[in-house]
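Lecture 7 notes: from sequence to structure.

We start with a single chain of 80 residues. Read the sequence below before looking at the structure.
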Amino acid sequence: MAVSGTLRIGGEELSVHTTGDSDHSWGRRNRDDFAKNLFKMWSAQVGDDFSFSVVTMGDPGSEIPYGFIARTAPSTPSFQ
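Now the structure, written as tokens:
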């Protein structure tokens, strides 16, 4: 699924054109655990050779951030 929109970071606006992402779980998720740990996740693919995922967990100000950036070939993300 193609997605287009605007991303605002610190007052700067970027035009974003990417594909959607869907998370998958085996079995039932305990949504109370996600809410208790303030779990947040953002992922996107930009073109055929650049993707990223960012996850944070924890209370505001003491979050634990982690994630990845994957590139299969040198490219420039489709941010304008």
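Strands lie at 2-9, 12-19, 40-46, 50-57, 64-71. Keep this in mind for problem set 3.
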